[in-house]
Amino acid sequence: MRQDRSLESIRTSAATKRRARRTPWPALAAAALLLSACGGGATGSPPADSPAAGSPTAGGGASPTSGIAYPEGPITMIVPFAAGGPTDTVTRLVAKPMETILGQTIVVQNVAGAGGTLAAGQVAEAPADGYTVLMHHIGMSTAPSLYASLPYDPLVDFKTIGLVTEVPMTIIGRPDFEPTTLEELVAYVKANADTVTYANAGIGAASHLCGLLFMSAIDTKVTEVPYDGTGPAMEDLAGSQVDFMCDQTTNTTEQIKSGGVKAYAITSPERNDALPDVPTTTEGGLPDVQVRVWHGLYVPADTPDEIVQALSAALQAALTDQNVIDKFADLGTVPVSADLATPEGHTAKLQSEIELWKAVIEAAGVTPQ
Ligand code: ASP
Questions:
Q1: Which residues surround ligand 1 with Cβ inside 6 Å?
Q2: Among 52, 96, 148, 177, which residue's CB has the most CB atoms within a 10 Å radius?
């Protein structure tokens, strides 16, 4: 992966690639046949004792009749935010059983920047061989409405593998922040808008979206402090360097329970079993501040369907892993149902969320930057 590339250069080359993809191109068909004949294109073989070894169908790998031996080497799973945040946590939890199922190492790599769009732009351009996989969240559907010139099209430049989980956010404050309830927070922010600071993970991140909804609901703007992810933002919040933020329960549950941060509300219509004492935004008087952050896996658009199916089968199996289920429950979430951990379920969600957030973002008066 080329992490030093600017968004501009990714934009230009992704646009070229998109134009090429939309043109029926005999060379692509030839390349697919070659891939089939060569058995994938990556080097290395699965460990002898791995489920994939000697049994191409074990663990849901590409079928023996497909002609694609996959996976034959390590897979890189890209996280578009910094380590230690909720997307990173969910990725590492799910990657573990997927490694066993696929019989290959999964290397989790954090490529943070530009609210998650930097990593998505890189994966859109990566070789379409199944060895570079993106874990992204709701930001995949909000970015088209927030960026004037996005270097990729979520519906054109990727194939979906399946959804992973869907999780509410919490509105939280530094431990010594004066307000103690959501009503008090609203009054405080309105009265101190010129000094209050709000942390987020960049434009298009879930924390940015939640902040937009909050500020639009109370008709007040505060200073936003962007981070590479809400992992580092949480450290600064707990250290009282910033005043408040929103983040998924997968990153906030432990901090809230230990008193490391103050919790004001949860952004779902119902309370969460992991945080039963935290009221909903509706209870606190802000019913329009509703965000559920869904995560899903993607590969570049030209990836062969057999590889997509192998990854999807591995994801579905990983989501039944008891450790994943238990850890998710501790963090206030559950794996999605099996029908949503599929390319079809994921694509339907992506399409509907792009439409939903386009309308919400327009209604909030936000113009793409
Ligand atoms: N929770 C973050 C967001 O605001 C991203 C992360 O670090 O996972 O989108």
A1: 81-82, 85-87, 137, 139, 201, 205-207, 229-231, 247-248
A2: 52
